[in-house]
Structure formats: C-alpha cells, structure tokens
Amino acid sequence: MKLQRTALAVIAVLLTCSAALAQDSSHFPITLQKQLTARASNYTEVNLDRSMLQFASHFMDKSDNAATRHLIEKLNGVYVRTYEFSKPGQYTAADLESIRRQFQSSDWKPMVRDHSKNGLSNSDIYVKSEGNEILGMFILDAEPQELDFVYISGPISLDDLSAMGGNFGIPKLKVRGNSAAGGNK
Amino acid sequence: MADFRNELEELERELREGLAARPAPDGFAERVFARVASKEARREARPAMFPHWRGALAAVLIAAVLIAAGLWQRQRQRRIAGEHARAQVFLALRITNSTLDAILQQKIQHNTKEAQP
Amino acid sequence: MSPSAERFANTLHRHQARVYSIAFRILGDSGAAEEVAQDVFLELHRSLPRLESEEHVTAWLRRVACHRSTDALRRRAARGGAIQDEWDENLSLTPQAPAPSPLMNRIECLLFTLPPAQRTILVLRYQEDMEPEDIAIELEMPLATVRSHLQRGLHLLRGKAERTLKEYIRG
C-alpha cells in the first residue's frame, strides 16, 4: 500500500514536471493559451522541440531548401501561437505582459519594441545572445483582432530566416538587412 | 469613338491574355497533401480486421500477418508523422517570416515618418 | 487511393493555378498567396463531398479564394499599411515570382498599382471571365458599384500603360 502511494506520488510529480516543461518549452502561459483558444475564431499552435525538428529534417528531401534543413537541424525548438478574433478586446495589456515576462531575464534584450500609444498594436522582438551569436528569438505581434507569437530556441539569425524566404510558401523578408534596432547578425 | 472602342477592345484582349492563370509554385500540391495528411493522422486508425483460422498452421500464419501488419502500420504511421512534422516546420517558418517582416516594415515606416521634418 | 481522395487530388491539380492566381493578383505577394491558396484547398477537402458538379466546385473555389485573399489584405492593412483608396502613381508591388510571359508580367505590374477593390474585380472579369452581374453576386456588391470599379480600373490602366510607353520611348 505504501509502495502504491509512493508510486502514485512519483507519477504525479512526473506529470507536473512534464506539464511545467510543456509551458517552459513554449514560454507561452498555458492559462492564457486556453483562454485565447476558446475566444479565437481561428488559431494555430505549433510545438516543435529538438527531437521533432530532427525527426522532420529526416523527411526533407533534396527538393527542400538546404538552408531550411541546415537551420532546423541546429535549433532546440520552434513554438508558434497565432490567434484570430472576430472582434477586438479578446485579450488585455496584462495578457501581453504575462507573455513578455517569460523573456525578461537579463539574457534577453529587446531588438524591437513598438507599442502604439492608442494601444491598437504592439510589436516586440527580443533576442537572447551570447557574444555575437543570437541563441534565441521571441516575436510578439499584437493587433486588435490578431495575436501572433513565435519563440525560436537555438542559434538563429535574420540571415538564416531570409535564406529560406521565397521557398515553400515562406515569405521573403523584404526588410532584410534593415537595422530596426541593430540586432542583425 | 471608333478609335476609343478599338483601344478598349485591345486593352481587354491584353488583359484576358495577360491574366490567364499563372502556375502555382513548384511543389504546391505536395504541400497541400502534406497538410491534409497531417490532419488525417490525428484521426484514430481503424482497427485491423483479421480472418479467423483454425489449427497450429493458422496460428503461425496469424502471427506472421500480425507482425507484418504491425511493422507496416508503424512504418506508415512514421511516414505520416514525418510528413506532419515537416508540414509543421514549414508552417512555423511561414508564420515566423511573415510576422517578422510585418513588424520590421512597420518599424521602418515609423522611422521614416519620424525622420521627416 | 479512395474515390474521394482521388476526386480531391484531381480537383486540386485542375484548379491550383486558378486559386493561386486569384490570391496572388489580389495580394501581390507570392508567399501570402501560397498561404491563402493552401488554406482554400484545405477547406475544400472538408467541403468537397457537399459540392456536386464541376461548376459548383469552380464557383466555390473562386468565392473562397476571393474572400480569403481580401481578408488577408485587410489584416495586412490593419498592421499599419493604409488600404489603397486611390490609385497611387508611385506604388508598385513588384511580383516576387517571375511571370511566365512578358505580357503577364507587364499586366500584373499595372494591376498591382490599382486599389484592391478594382484589382479584385478586374481579376474576376478578365482572369475568370465573369460577367459584372455574377461578380456583383459573388462580392455582394451592387451591380452599379462593380461597373463603376471596372470602368475606373480600365481607365486607370489605359492611362498608366500610355505613361509607361511614353517613358519607354523617351528613355
């Protein structure tokens, strides 16, 4: 009986850790995610940890862009959340702040912080860097009826993202090389 | 008046010719199929149907079929999962680039407006 | 392949150029056009069993491609770019993917200088060969408005084409 209780406790701890890890991996607050999913008219959630990215790269053939394969093989994770709403007011400034808080350690530096005075649009690009290398990127684009979040963990640069553009429906970065805040590699 | 009508007809002829459907990008159909496959991969698999056999030989044959079916099913699921993962990667990268581009373009527009006297 | 999967595959191959072209010519961006076109076919995959005839499928694809493209354009405008209300002499959304012919390239370049409403109507009129009455039903717009956009669009294209030719001659 004691062994059974211990086993149950261990399982409970493991499940909690795994749930916490799931949130930590994507850096998107789970409670907020559930709320936005319920309110959205359309949403997309992508969770690709390192093992999934490696797995996906095995299924990329010669016709797939070599730059894309090379990029995803070195990443630790790519997490995307996009939400479209039929009307404004489905999230608050506090909700956006709860997302940004996940990236406010000293490792993370803002590359773009564009918050309109009327509160109708908020854009953030934060990067985590070590020396000259960017080791993570967080993008948050909030419009009245749309919220887009991207978190990329691992070595990444605008050059890498630009190299993939124009292939397989991936848009080209038209502003490649423009120093919005001087953060490009 | 006749000249104007001729000009208009010529313009309309050019528009019809110039606006013939342009081909979709290479691999477009494959990418659509991959997205369809990734949705279907989430549906539950139908249970396999096995015939009923009698005797030891039948038992051996059943075992062989089960193993082969299991292997095939695992390979098929792995392939479907792989296509799904690949489709998810491209989806994530599309969203990343379009979001990034929109933010940076907006930033440039703001900087341009601020720089104007 | 099951009959339904085969029907979907055949429909996709038959109409992918049409759907992509509608999206591309409304949005002016090959990446965004591919995204919209893929979404249209994903929706078709769900809806195809309800669509009985080939005509029904074609009309459905046109309608959904148009609506999704104009929605995407509105979302893009909401990000900070103003929606074009008037023809902008200086605006030119250079297509990223090269057109198969010089004429198509020239026509598309001219088309992209027009405001979205006129552009959409011209695409439906001259790419899809739809009559103004059918365009009005499709876009839920009064017939008079469709005719006015069509007339104005053609007038602007003529003027722009003349200017381009004169500059070419002068150059």
Task: Describe the model.
- The complex is a heterotrimer of chains A (185), B (117) and C (171).
- Chain A is α+β, with helices and mostly antiparallel strands.
- Chain A has 6 helices and 6 strands.
- In chain A, strand 5 (133-143) and strand 6 (146-153) form a beta hairpin.
- The N and C termini of chain A lie far apart (59 Å).
- The model of chain A is unreliable at 7-23 and 177-185 (pLDDT under 50).
- Chain B is an all-alpha fold and 117 residues long.
- Chain B has 3 helices and no strands.
- Chain B has helices at residues 2-18, 28-40, 55-115.
- In chain B, helix 2 crosses helix 3.
- The longest helix of chain B has 61 residues, at 55-115.
- Chain B is elongated, with a radius of gyration of 29 Å.
- The two termini of chain B are 49 Å apart.
- Chain C has 2 domains: 1-83, RNA polymerase sigma factor, region 2, helix turn helix motif (Rna Polymerase Sigma Factor, Chain: A, Orthogonal Bundle); 85-171, Arc Repressor Mutant, subunit A (Orthogonal Bundle).
- In chain C, helix 1 packs across helix 3.
- The longest helix of chain C is centred in the C-terminal third of the chain and has 28 residues, at 143-170.
- The termini of chain C are far apart.
- Chains B and C meet through helix 1, helix 2 and helix 3 of B and helix 1, helix 2, helix 4, helix 5 and helix 7 of C.
> Which residues of chain B sit in consecutive blocks of at least 5 with pLDDT less than 50?
44-54
Major beta sheet summary of chain C: none
Give the integer mean of the pLDDT values of chain B: 77
Helical content of chain B stands at: over 70%
Order of helices and strands of chain B: HHH
Report the biggest beta sheet of chain B as strand number plus sense, adding barrel if it closes: none
Q: What's the CATH architecture of the largest domain in chain C?
A: Orthogonal Bundle
What is the number of beta strands of chain B?
A: 0
Order of helices and strands of chain C: HHHHHHH
Q: Could you tell me the number of beta strands of chain C?
A: 0
Overall structural domain count of chain C: 2
Name the shape of chain B in a single word. elongated
Largest interface: B-C, 31 and 46 residues
The quaternary structure here is heterotrimer
Task: Tell me the distance between the termini of chain C.
Answer: 58 Å
- Bulk shape of chain C: globular
Distance between the termini of chain B: 49 Å
